[in-house]
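Lay summary

Proteins are chains of building blocks that fold into shapes. Our project writes down both the chain and a compact code for its shape. Here are two examples, one after the other.
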Amino acid sequence: MKDVELPEAMQQVMAMQAEAIREKRARIIKAEAELEASEKLAAASAKMAGNPAALELRRMQMIAEVGAENNSTTVLMIPSEFATLSKTLSEYLRERGFRWRDRALFHNAGGTTSCRGAWGTDSSTSARLTDATWSRNDSTRRISMLGERISAESGKVTAQRVLPNPGGGPKMETSFQATGKLLGEDETDTGTYSAVVRPDGTLYGEGQGVVMGKNGDLATWIGQGVGTIKKDGSVSYRGALYYQTSSPRWSRLNSIAGIFEYEVDAQGNARSEISEWK
């Protein structure tokens, strides 16, 4: 057979069949690629969920890539409530001469700037306290002693759990509840802090909590500090703490930095003392 002629209709059917086979193969390949990509994305999201900073860094990297490739303006969408809250808080503090930098509170009054706070890093061996006053006409730094004790509490650890910390040391989250006095008023303090073990065996922790007074006053706090683990299993922390409240009786807390001593024994019994850093 040297020459075979097929009807035109049959040629069209065969072409359609070949096209359908090619389309089927393309869809299968695309589906397999989507499956593999979804598995990789799931693994990446699981890792980022354990470290919020990683998600923020990835977002910033994507923004940088978009700006570099397209050479155009990039619009970032954020909730309007967040922008309004940030603006209102900044204006409120600026009107009263306050500025926040790192974890220190700056107050400017009468040509003199005062600073109360603490700073440190995960690689440092201790938190460093700062208490300095600068004058426009005097650059001398003044170091003061601790002020009066503003709070004393005793309580109990209520819960603990291990947190993921990829690439870092063991990380533990601890919740507690304590009772005591804040500025002379009976109160209940409920808080949670997380601590990571650093290479030298010391602890670096950050926490937050809510204090409720007997007379209905309410205040929130954030703090950070460093700790040491003792041979008997107890832990001792030293650090700085900052309050925020709208209660008139506790309004003084908004402009002070507290220096705390926090001890918890192996059975979970905790006690703390907080003094004003003058």
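And here is the second example, written the same way.
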Amino acid sequence: MQRILRRRAGFWALAGAALAVLLLAALPGRALMAGEDRGQLVVTGRAELSVEPDMAVVQIGAETRAETVEEARKANAEIMQRVQTRLLSLGLDAKDLKSRGFYVYPEWQYDREEGTQTLLGYRVTHTLQVTVNDLDLLGPVLDAAMQEGANQISGPTFGLKDTAALEAEALQEAVRRARAKAEAIAEASGVFLKGITEIRESVAVPYAPAARSAYVAVDALEVATPISPGEVSVTATVTISYEI
């Protein structure tokens, strides 16, 4: 029994010594890892640039009703054909006219007392997305569409044909603002900016709606539809992480 106890005591002594050695060996490594931690300063710069738009997109459509599908479809097709021909005659390119929806709906009349329904006819709608790259033509385009029978017009929304240059300018300004903010914070805090560890950016180029309604019913032969484009804004946001 005494031999067994002595053996167990010796085992635990050796185990304790080995554990102590492992702990001592691990301490320098932990101190080194802690020493590698770096201070960090994260700042965000935002810049918004506004310019006048140079293009617009408008939805032009026709809705027709008739007792039969064919009658409603034919009436709709005639209107939309006239609309497209007229728009092309104004100088628009065929690739700027795109169909965005063609729907046929049955129209029912419900009798609650009898619990029955009667088919009255059909409704056909056809919507054309029109891109206008010359804003001087936007008013005439809307007027021409209404003259040819279009009775559903929504928009326009304004935008830019090419946003690359404006996006780059907005990003540069956002970076300058982020840098100025970082330098001000570093100076006030008594630290130094050692270098950049990470940069994140995002750019938003939203379309601008018309400043006033462009689909008010007017007599296009006497009064031209007024359009006020307003401005389109490009917003850039840059987040920069500095080592301090």
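What can we say about the second shape? Residues 40-50+165-205+238-243 form one domain.
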